[in-house]
Amino acid sequence: MIKRVKAFTIMEITVAMLIAAIVIAITYTCYTIVYKSYLAFKTRQHDLVEVSQLTQLIERDMEKGDLIVQREDGITIKGSNNEISYAIQPDYILRIAAVTDTFKVKTEGLIRYFEGQALATKNDSDEQNRIDELSFTILLGNDKFPYDYLKPYSSQNLINRNPNAIN
After folding, report:
1. Structural contact between residues 72 and 82, judged by C-beta atoms closer than 8 angstroms
2. How distant, in Å, are the alpha carbons of 28, 40, 43, 45 from that of 35?
3. Burial (Cβ within 10 Å: 0-12, 13-18, ≥19) of residue 129
4. DSSP-derived secondary structure for 126-156
5. Are 97 and 84 spatial neighbours (Cβ–Cβ below 8 Å)?
6. Which of 87, 167, 83, 71 lies closest to 119, judged by CA?
7. Which DSSP category does 65 fall into?
8. Is this prediction's pTM over 0.85?
9. DSSP conformation letters of 2-18
């Protein structure tokens, strides 16, 4: 009596391996797509957080500052006991204070205004370089986000800048 051993044929094993290879390939492809999407999302969120932090710092510094003057590469915010400078370059923004911060954002179109007039060249005195509005565009990927920051000076601040303003 010949006993038959129950087993799979080579053809059945080959088909099973082929199906397993197809499932593994599909799984790997899906994983790669999801991972790349996650990395793109994470990078975009990081850039947005950096822009948000930059915006909050500029707004806070401008609000607390007594005088904002233009520099050749950005602005300087002068307060009663501190001075904060922003160097606005095409590839980054550098905030120089007690601690120096670098924001890796791409910018273009830096314009500084005082009373609605764009300031073209840097002058000798702080009063001639006073600004009340800062405008530039931040580039994130293919998107452009215009940012405009205003400094509402108090009446007292503007009168103090010119001692003859009362007369």
Report:
1. no
2. 10, 9, 12, 15
3. buried
4. TTTTB-SEEEEEEEETTEEEEEEEE----HH
5. yes
6. 71
7. -
8. no
9. PPPPP---HHHHHHHHH
Side-chain-facing half-sphere of 113: CA atoms under 13 Å: 13
Length of the chain, in residues: 167
Tokens of 142: 């293919």
| Measured CA angle at 96 (ends 111, 105), to 5 deg | 55
Helices (H) and strands (E) in the chain, counts: 2, 9
Q: Is 97 helix (H, G, I), strand (E, B) or coil?
A: coil
DSSP state of 162: -
Structure-token pair, residue 136: 């530039």
The phi, psi pair for 101, rounded to 5°, reads -115, 140
Span 80-90, pLDDT tens digits:
888 999 999 99
The predicted-structure confidence for 143-158, as pLDDT tens digits, reads as follows 999 999 998 887 776 6
The Cα 88–Cα 13 span in angstroms is: 66
